[in-house]
Amino acid sequence: MSTSAAGLTEPHWGRHLQRRVLWPARNLWRSLTSMRIALALLFLLAIAAVPGALLPQRDLNATKTSQYIADNGTVGEVLDNLQMFEVFSSVWFTSIYALLFISLVGCLTPRIADHAKSLRARPVAAPRNLARLPRHEVRDTNGTPEQIADTIGQGLRGWRTTVRTIDTPGPGGGSVTTTEVSAEKGYLREFGNLVFHFSLLALLVAIAAGKMLGYEGTRILVADGQEGLCNTSTAVYDSFRAGNLVDGTNLNEFCIQVEAFDASYLETGQPDMYTATLKYQSGNDIRDGEWNQRALKVNDPLRVAGDRVYLLGHGFAPTFTVTFPDGRTRTQTVPFQPDELQTMMSSGAARFDTPAGLYPDDDERRTKQIAVEGLFAPTAVFDGGLMTSAWPIPDNPAVAIDVYQGDTGLDTGRPQNVYSLNVDMINQGRLLKIERVNLLTGQDTRLADGTSIRFDGYQRWVSLQVSHDPAQKWVLVSSITMLGGLLVSLLIKRRRIWARITPMPTAGAARCTVEMAGLARTDQAGWGENFTEMVDALLATSTPHALDTAQRPPA
Q1: Mean of the per-residue pLDDT values for the chain?
Q2: 82-96, pLDDT tens digit by residue?
């Protein structure tokens, strides 16, 4: 017998491998694929999704997430290290998701085989002592065992039945031939249970496939009928989140323009309804230059070219015109971010580069750029020079702005916050505050070098989200199937009935003693006192004679 390098014989080494590797792996697999662990993982997955609903998520709003981390200091940094701002793509959430998938597959596969065997198997034979079952009745009735068995079988239509003939020891050392009827019903209960769990499994697969093959992009559009969005590239979005299998080169083609926007409010200032009027085109309409029109509301998306377009929010976009010393002008309509939803008090910033050739020297040009940062009030109220907003509907629009001159960072190539200026440039003295002023519509302010800044009014802007999920139909189908399987498993009752027919030694007409018992898996299958009535109906007798009512336990 050969010996290994470690000094163990081959059979000894095999037992060592089984004890150290195979048996722990088998026990781990059995534990993971148990229904108890599957339910625990499902509950854990629901708990793990809670931070994704309570905390801002980076893929949905990177700016808000960064602000949340900055506001909470060390706590924000710890949460970020724990991937709490990327919950649904985190390692720990994905691990729970994958373990739940494996657990369900390993748990359900053997149950399919067991259910298939039970469908082909005959109903089990009657227990030896039927009197010990929850439901038990004994009757004397006329007829031969074959006739009574046939009567019972006809009454159990829809049940799976089988008839057995058994010789049992009788009095006086002889044998007595008894006939047993076994019947079972409710196989659909287990089928519904399997459908429910496999639908849950399909739902998990569909959601995962949708995340990998789908994408979401958000874009702010001014509702003036001029600015548009064509879904041809990821670069047209303010933020874009793509699945792992999406490279952004094969997006569904369509174009959108926002013609107008209307918002209605309650008397308390709470928003009641948002409605955006859209023009859109897709497919041949793009080539032919034809547009379709539709009203877009909250929770009522536009479905175009296989994508869905949602209305997420809205705000105001003030229009500023800067007139430089040579008379040339620059006009911008810039979205401001709502800070107070009840009054729509908003904040934002705008940056203006100088006209070409006005300052040939690049260094001088960077000291003459204009930036505006401040507040917009749709219904302005001034109290001691401070501006606030009294109502979200525009009635007296005004801005309170700080005017800066210097290097706005427009030619650095670095991304900047659209709603605020670069604080580092202000602190470094590269962007200097020149003036602070309140302006109503049409008013302007003039700087020392002759540059003027005018507030021309406002436009509405809307925030749109384009969502593509190729698995959404399968999610719906899986959800409906899961609900159907759950209803079947709850409504169908698994029940078994046995009848033991023993002939009575009589000189006259044939007469038998019929002993019947019922068993169910859940709450006696709702039989209650109806089991007695069921026995009477199966034996087709109008005057049943109960022999052992005292043996029957109460319902």
Answers
A1: 85
A2: 999 988 888 898 899
Which of 161, 149, 173 is closest to 502 using CA atoms? Answer: 149
User: Buried b / exposed e across 196-213, counting CB within 10 Å, b at 16+?
Assistant: bbbbbbbbbebbbbbbeb
pLDDT at residue 292, as a whole number? 93
pLDDT at position 529: 65
The angle subtended at Cα 165 by Cα 160 and Cα 169, nearest 5°, is 135
**8 Å CB contact between 277 and 259:** yes
Across 151-184, b (16+ Cβ under 10 Å) vs e yields bbbebbeebbbebeeeeeeeeeeeeeebbbbbbb
- 512-543 burial, b for 16+ CB within 10 Å, e for fewer? bebbbbbbbeeebbebeeebbebbbebbebee
Mean pLDDT, to the nearest integer, of 285-311?
Answer: 91
Buried residues in 405-436 as b, exposed as e (16+ CB within 10 A): bbbbbeeeeeeeebbebbeebbeeebbeebee
Residue 379 bridge partners (DSSP): 396
Class for domain 123-185+493-551, per CATH? alpha beta
311 confidence band (pLDDT: 50, 70, 90)? very high
Distances (CA, A) of 51 to 57, 73, 133, 212: 9, 18, 51, 21
Where are the domains positioned within the chain? 33-119, 123-185+493-551, 198-313+466-485, 316-456
For 441-458, b where at least 16 C-beta lie within 10 A, e where not — what string?
beeebeeeeebebbbbeb
pLDDT at residue 546, rounded to an integer: 39
pTM of the entire predicted model: 0.68
- Average pLDDT of the segment spanning 294-317: 91
Q: Output b/e per residue, 55-94; b: 16+ Cβ within 10 A.
A: bbbbbeeebebbebbeeeeeebeebbeebbbbbbebeebe
Find the Cα–Cα–Cα–Cα dihedral 322, 328, 334, 339, rounded to 10°: 0
| Mean pLDDT (whole number) for 379-393 | 89
Whether the CB-CB separation of 498 and 514 falls below 8 Å is answered with no
